[in-house]
Amino acid sequence: MDTKVLHKISYGLYIVSSFDGQKLNGQIANTVFQVTSTPPRIAVCLNKENLTHSLVEKSGVLSISILEQDTPFKFIGLFGFRSGREIDKFAGLNYKTGKTGAPIVMDYALAYMEIKVTMKADADTHTLFIGTLEDARILKEGTPLTYDYYHRVLKGKAPKTAPTYIKE
Ligand SMILES: Cc1cc2nc3c(=O)[nH]c(=O)nc-3n(C[C@H](O)[C@H](O)[C@H](O)COP(=O)(O)O)c2cc1C
In terms of DSSP H, where are the helices of 90-159? Predict the structure, then answer.
């Protein structure tokens, strides 16, 4: 078996955010995809160690900001390599509160979606959250950031908590 095949799967890059009444937090995720069209349902796969995972478990809602290709590496680092358990990622950030109550990151976002979780699949280290689309808005035109662009052009890596982590 050649596991390099897995590197050929295409993804985008997103910020998944949630809250627990007080704390707002978000994380980078590439594992976001549409599951059904009627009704529109979206899936997101989150590591159980992430603060965002516990906030989604508590609130049952999340937002997804679709990042633009020109998102600075530093911004991706803040959401993808740091935990909200140590820092306040939303301090000084441009965000708004969505229909569901979930915070929505507006910086470097081309569009956003809000999801109400209706199903979950336990995948040992991760949970696959599936939910219905509660709101969706385009913020500006532009090219979405892809996982491939992040690796190939920005020379970025994925941490151990990412479902697609590659041991080197
Ligand atoms: C390119 C990239 C892709 C990632 N994809 C995922 C993902 O799909 N699911 C996930 O749980 N973590 C993913 N991560 C890791 C989380 O963003 C990271 O563990 C984050 O620090 C968790 O933050 P939190 O503890 O504040 O929730 C990814 C990170 C990067 C840099």
Answer: 147-152
Q: Is the entire prediction scored with pTM above 0.85? A: yes
Between CA 77 and CA 110 the distance in angstroms is 19
Q: Is 100 in the pocket of ligand 1 (CB under 6 A)?
A: no
pLDDT cut 70: percent of the chain above it: 99
**Under the phi-then-psi rule, with left for phi > 0, alpha for psi from -120 to 50, and beta for the rest, what region is 52?**
alpha
Q: Which atom of ligand 1 lies closest to the CA of 47?
A: 11
Residue range 13-152 in CATH 2.30.110.10: yes
Residue 103 near ligand 1, beta carbon < 6 Å:
no
Q: Which atom of ligand 1 is nearest to the CA of 76?
A: 31
Instruction: Please give the pLDDT value at position 1.
Output: 93
Domain boundaries, the chain: 13-152
